[in-house]
Amino acid sequence: MMRRLAGVEDEDKWLAEGIAGIQHNAFFMHRALDANNLREVLKYSALMLSELRTSKLSPQKYYDLYMRAFDQLRQLEVFFKDESRHGLPVVDLYELVQHAGNILPRMYLLCTVGSVYIKSKQAPSKDVLKDLVEMCRGVQHPIRGLFLRSYLAQVSRDKLPEIGSEYEGDANTVMDAVEFVLQNFTEMNKLWVRIQHQGPGTVRERQEKERNELRDLVGKNLHVLGQIEGVDLDMYKETVLPRVLEQVVNCKDELAQYYLMECIIQVFPDEYHLQTLETLLAACTQLMPTVDTKIVLTQLMDRLSNYAASSPDVLHEFLQVEAFAKLSNAIGKVIDTQIEMPIVGAMTLFVSLLTFTLRVHPDRLDYVDQILGACVVKLSSVPKLEDARAMKQVVALLSAPLEKYNDIVTALTLSNYPRVMDHLDDGTNKVMAMLIIQSIMKNDSCISTADKVEVLFELIRGLIMDLDGTDTEELDEEDFQEEQNSVARLIHMLDNEEPEEMLKIICVVRKHLMTGGTRRLPFTVPPLVFSALRLVRQLESQDGTVTGEDVPATPRKIFQILNQTIEVLSSVPCPELALRLYLQCAEAASDCDLEPVAYEFFTQAFILYEEEIADSKAQVTAIHLIVGTLQRINVFGVENRDTLTHKATGYSARLLKKPDQCRAVYACSHLFWIDDRDGIQDGERVLLCLRRALRIANAAQQMANATRGSSGPVTLFVEILNKYIYFYEKCNPHITPSDIQSLIELINTEMQSDDNGNRRIHSDPFFTSTLRYIRFQKQKGGLMGDKYDLIKL
């Protein structure tokens, strides 16, 4: 560390000395310029430029020194342009500066005068440029030579004989400009590569850093080549690219090859790359094994992809040159030859090739599948994919078709798509499965055939079953629920207008879901059941006559499947959910006029209630669900309906809490009186249910008084009163005005005093509202008003 600090301090000192030398000699040079003294100008300018002969500075420090000298050379060039000041023809001046004592100052002066010589047009620019580029070979020190040739490139840039230039003519052609730049590039690249061989091997890391700092000096030549007017495709194909690639391949240097290939891709037009694709790709396969070829190829494919996206008119060019085949072959060769290329590198290349293909050939699914197949082959050569970066690239590879086609159905036709997913670890497999489901939801895609559903559920099996013995208990509960809810939403996206095919889809989904384990079934079975019930109602609207060749798509067959499915759910155990689903199926069976099926589903629901549901709150909810469903069903005969109704009322009376008993019993009254249905208007049994509920409410009041010293609220009585009023309005002959009036008096008595005879002020908003309703009906008049007039308040 101390040695490094000492080296930096020494460099700063040497740089300061060099700058001081330049400034000192520049002062005398300017005094000579003011006096128009050519001899003194040349003397002090040579001394000034001699400061650039140092070998002690790093490239960065040398650049600072070079820029100080460059600023002075600009003023010197102005002096050389004005022949009236120095009195010599430019041709004589060009000869004179060649007598400078040291070659480095001599070449800087020669380049400066050469620029003036070309501008004077007293000689063909190609001759002067050729002379200069040849004589610069005299400086072979890498850093000094690079900066000298960089200066030559800079002063000659606006004097090249390109098309439209004032220096273009019979003796000067675009080829001369190209030849000059190519020759200067070749020599600069050689100097740049030689830097690595300077000094001992212990400073190799520092040398590579210094070389990296100098790369732009070399790359500027390629930028100039890309900007020369008149370099058409033929010239590029026949001269420019072969010469540049020859230098790139032959230099056998990792840094130079990578940087120069990057420059070629960036500076030349896209259409040139396309027309010379084979040559360019051949060079990529000849690079050093240590060169990061994947980045070079990726940049090339990205540029070509953007070019293809720029206009539909250029797509035919890609077809003409068979771009996909050439890129695919080149990538295959690179992956095969670079045995030590990490798997992430190969996956990156496949992603870039797929991106290119989806932009240029979106209609060629065989190309997409071919890329995925090559990816499978590469992944198969790896025992286990553990690199997180490679895994990310595989996900990008699988996501690209989804994003392009906005349709999972298209991806499902790719035979190698699931084979690529097989190589993902469990966590990444789930991520990819979620992306697939999100794509389906986003694009509202409908999967309409059993075969495609089979492929889809194979792709997302990481969400619907445990992979490699993964314990679902280890998963985050929130993440697990989100995953299963996504699967549930997906099931609703599976649909087909043909009942036979839809039944096949349901069977395929059921087959996969049944492997999900007890923790997943409560999430995934309900959407499957409702999907099947949707099919049942579709068949019911078609009279249930549609059958298939293999599996008859009839409601009875579907109900058999549903019974087996819910039975699995009831054994999870998840009895409350299973009971709800049994009742839904019973109602659907009633709509299809299948009394035995509906009765069987009710039987299963009652068995669950008796054997599995022990929680009192769950029992209350279950009873009300049973009563509500039974009330809506009209398929049962008298015997079956009486059996089920008797069961429901019996369960209601045996609930744990008196208020729950009361509410369940008066709810059962609706089972005996159903509007607009002949034969189910048993007013006597309605009255029995309401009186039984009233007795239970009385018992609840007495228990409240015994435990709390007060009778408590009269809510239950008011609720029963409302039931009396409801059935009174429905013209139940067993509900009389005196029954209602007696109940109102009972409620008033309960509200005004407690069991000890003490009066209390107590109001019930529900009761008040009920009385207001009765008064409103009285005032309204008509037939209903006459009925309510019989009730005395």
Nutshell version of this structure?
The chain is mainly α and 793 residues long. The chain is 73% helix and 0% strand.
Average of the residue pLDDT scores: 88
Overall geometric form: elongated
Structural class: mainly alpha
Largest sheet: none
Q: Enumerate how many helices there are, as a single number.
A: 39
User: Cα distance, first to last residue?
Assistant: 104 Å
Descriptive report:
By secondary structure, this protein is mainly α. 73% of the residues lie in helices and 0% in strands. The protein has helices at residues 2-34, 38-50, 59-81, 83-86, 90-96, 103-120, 125-135, 142-156, 174-194, 204-227, 233-250, 254-267, 270-275, 277-284, 293-310, 315-321, 323-337, 343-360, 365-380, 388-405, 408-412, 417-421, 426-443, 450-459, 461-464, 477-491, 499-513, 521-541, 555-570, 575-591, 595-611, 616-632, 638-653, 658-668, 683-708, 715-729, 737-752, 765-780, 782-789. The longest helix has 33 residues, at 2-34. This is Vacuolar protein sorting-associated protein 35. It is found in: Cytoplasm; Endosome membrane; Golgi apparatus, trans-Golgi network membrane; Prevacuolar compartment membrane.
Task: Name some characteristics of this structure.
793 residues; mainly alpha; 73% helix; disordered N terminus; ARM-type_fold; golgi apparatus; membrane; protein transport; Vacuolar protein sorting-associated protein 35
